[in-house]
Amino acid sequence: PIFGQKMKNVEGRIGEDVRFEIQVEGTPVPAVTFHRESEQIYDGGRYSIVEEENGLFVLTIRNTRPEDAGEYQCIAVNGAGEVTSKGYLHVEEELTIPQFIDMGTYKCQVRNDLGRTSTSAHLNIIVATRPEFKEKLTKVEVTEGDRAKFEVRVKGYPYPEVEWYHGSNRILDEDRFEIESVKETGYYSLTVGEVVQEDAGMYKCIAVNKAGKSTCRADLEVNERQFAPEFETEEPTILQRLQPVDTIEGEAIKMECRVSGKPEPTITWLKDGLVFLTDNRIKTYFDGDVCTLTIRDVKLGDEGIYRCNAKNSSGS
After folding, report:
1. Omega cis (within 30) before 263
2. In what order do the strands lie in the sheet with 253-262?
3. Which CATH class is domain 2-92?
4. CB 304 within 8 A of CB 272
5. Domain locations in the chain?
6. Of 150, 135, 221, 162, whose CA–CA distance to 192 is shortest?
7. How many other CB atoms sit within 10 Å of the CB of residue 61?
8. CA neighbor of 154 nearest in space, from 213, 106, 234, 100
9. Per CATH, which fold does 228-311 belong to?
10. What CA–CA distance (Å, rounded) separates 279 from 302?
11. What is the per-residue pLDDT for 232?
12. Where are the transmembrane segments (predicted)?
């Protein structure tokens, strides 16, 4: 006989069922028996021995006890010989939960004829506390395309694990969503980047530890982004040009031209290529599309080349 699958070590807790599995091959078909230490195990009571397909044998021990721990063997025998496979069952006992009276410093001493040594450690018992929101979620209102940020502060022991939800959908730290956790200070945040209308709605933060869980909620309101209306633009155009003027000293003159443009142009007057200042004697006007320059009490120094310049955001 040969083992296509040998017995393996098995671990189990008190009260659980455990299984040893082994596959046996051979011609003629081997007789298979199971043993604990040197004592054969029979099918019945807390033990179940089942032969399944392809020579697979299963030994099940129900409602495991501490005394079930130890070495188990499977022996396969036919006219050609005998083979044995072994496996060990380790039974984990339930731990006793420490009480407050167990707190203190524990010391282990070891000694022999040559001397002694020791080591010590302190047992401190901390009570688990249910998560509690010291700062809860508050409503957030943003405009499309902006960032939205939710923040909470949670205390609890052990440090809580925090999950975020939009409606019933859990939010993960990816794409437009950024999750920050600083467990030592209890600070947790969720940032939603480049918000769209579909991000609006109820957001939920759940804090969980072994002592329980707590939940808080808040809305995200997303306002539609308002864009300034688009206006038709047009470069300034001269509709009527300035005309030459002849006059004599002491008289008054008026020069006019007409311009158009969208938005309305800004008008600048120049004399001999330089901008000049207006005063009580020299004045400029822009009414509708008419640009006017008036000069009272003309002097020889007023002689020159006058220019009217119209400019807006589209040109000049």
Report:
1. yes
2. 234-240, 253-262, 290-295, 282-287
3. mainly beta
4. yes
5. 2-92, 129-223, 228-311
6. 150
7. 23
8. 213
9. Immunoglobulin-like (2.60.40)
10. 13
11. 79
12. none
Which residue stretches of the chain have pLDDT < 70?
A: 94-100, 228-231
Q: Which fold has domain 129-223?
A: Immunoglobulin-like (2.60.40)
| Helix/strand/coil for 181 | strand
Tokens of 95: 């731990």
Chain segment 263-303, per-residue pLDDT in tens: 888 888 898 988 887 888 999 998 889 999 999 999 998 99
Dist CA 260 CA 104 (whole Å): 94
∠ CA 314-261-313, rounded to 5°: 25
Contacts of residue 113, defined as CB under 8 A and 6 or more positions apart, other chains included, come to none
Q: What is the pLDDT of residue 100?
A: 63
Task: Tell me the per-residue pLDDT of 66-88, one tens digit each, with 9 for 90 and over.
Answer: 899 999 999 999 999 999 999 99
Q: How far apart are CA 13 and CA 8, in angstroms?
A: 17
Distances (CA, A) of 211 to 136, 165, 204: 19, 21, 20
C-beta separation of 220 from 148 below 8 A: yes
Domains 2-92 and 129-223 share a fold: yes
CA distances from 147 to 129, 170, 226, 227, 268 (A): 34, 19, 16, 18, 45
Identity at 182, one-letter amino acid code: V
Residue in 260, 299, 257, 308 with CA at minimum distance from that of residue 279: 299
Identify the three-state secondary structure at position 283.
strand
